[in-house]
Amino acid sequence: MSFEILGTGSAHPACRKTNDDIAQLVDTSDEWIRSRTGIESRYVCTTETLQDLALEAAQKALKMAKVQPKELDLILVATIRGDCITPSAACILQNALGASCPAFDLNAACSGFLYALDTADGWFCRNRAKKVLVVAAETMSRLLNYQDRTTCPLFGDGAGAVVLGQGDALLSIHLTAKGDPLTLRIDNTDGQSPFLKMDHPAEQYLHMSGQNTYRFAVSNLCRQLKLAAQEAGIDLKDLDWVLPHQANLRIIEGAQHRLPIPTEKYCINIQNWGNTSAAAVPILMDEFCRKGTFKPGDLLGLVVFGGGLTTGSAILRWTIDPKKIFDSEVSK
Ligand code: ACO
Predict the structure, then answer these.
(1) What pLDDT, in 10s, does the model give residues 78-132?
(2) Which of 147, 212, 282, 295 is deepest in the core (most CB within 10 A)?
(3) Which one, of 314, 286, 285, lies nearest residue 301 by Cα?
(4) Atom of ligand 1 nearest to the CA of 206
(5) Can you say whether the dihedral through the CA atoms of 24, 28, 31, 33 is positive or negative?
């Protein structure tokens, strides 16, 4: 026994910044960002916390699933950095929801949502859980250097959530990690210890080798999706929808050229969000779910990559009836 998805939700901060807004801060342009990445705008936190985004996404997913917080057996939050080092974002969310189950965070950078689904799968397989809430939430804007044009236009803030119940909708899931301390890196702060002897105090900014990440991303999107399909015993052509990590439209197009899947089957929303790291795929899933794109029985291929360097891929059978989404909205 594994799981099926019962509900999805997502949230973003109120403030939306266009490429022209970013070009006020660094030497870049709408034309450069659009043509090299596909990004047109992104949301950034002004007064919102990560907890605000996580809570809103979670409440929407619970509402669609018609599950009460007290019914949850586990809360997982995938994030690069919560509002606090401790308590975890998951414990803060548990408190805000009024749930009473175990709760913890995990960090696999942009691959965190898939790592969290795999962890949840283990709880279902061991019969430890009947209902699990998985949230991926990121406030990337707090981790960017807005004087570095090679990184600051690329990322945005947001949260996505799914509520899982017992079922057999997960056909395969495949994770990898290739320890690489440099390609994508955000140092932690050094603290105030009077004993530290560091020449250069750590700066909590994202550093990225864009071209190394690009190469890693294209080859792994293809390889990991093929592996997940193989493990599920399906052909890539059987997939109804592909939900790839939203890091750069050109990375997705690179994968489209190499895979035998029609381009119209790829779900894409990077133009409006930028790269929201671990939150990208659950946000994408929620958006296309609420549009009524997915029908019960559809096969979804999820594939992500990120800092670590990590990857994740999964094949899921869709189980939510679009009619049910409508009902849950009416019952608001
Ligand atoms: N505006 C204008 N010029 C820029 C900008 C910008 N925002 N950024 C870089 N440039 C310049 C560079 O300085 C360089 O100039 P130079 O030739 O004079 O030195 C030129 O553009 C080309 O730079 P490249 O790095 O070669 O540009 P590229 O076409 O590779 O695009 C990009 C850069 C968008 C970062 C691309 O490499 C990429 O998308 N990489 C993958 C990024 C990614 O996936 N990140 C997230 C993964 S994991 C996670 O989500 C945490």
Answers:
(1) 999 999 999 999 999 999 999 999 999 999 999 999 999 999 999 999 999 999 9
(2) 282
(3) 314
(4) 51
(5) negative
Closest approach atom of ligand 1 to CA 217: 44
- Contact between 317 and 171 under an 8 Å Cβ cutoff? The reply is yes
**DSSP characters over 72-120:** -SEEEEE-S--S-SSS-HHHHHHHHHT--S-EEEE-BTBTHHHHHHHHH
Residues carrying an active site annotation: 110, 245, 275
Across all residues in the chain, what is the average pLDDT?
95
- Half-sphere exposure (Cβ direction) of 297: Cα atoms closer than 13 Å: 0
Name which residue sits closest to atom 21 of ligand 1, judged by CA: 150
- Separation CA 202–CA 214 (nearest Å): 26
Residue pLDDT, tens place only, 22-34: 999 999 999 999 9
- The closest residue, in CA terms, to atom 1 on ligand 1 is 28
What is the model's pTM?
A: 0.95
* DSSP H helical ranges for 180-312: 210-232, 249-258, 270-273, 280-290
Distance CA 163, CA 7 (A): 5
202-206, 228-232, 237-241, 252-256: range with lowest mean pLDDT: 202-206
Domains within the chain, CATH numbers bracketed: 2-168 (3.40.47.10), 172-325 (3.40.47.10)
Nearest CA to ligand 1 atom 7: 149
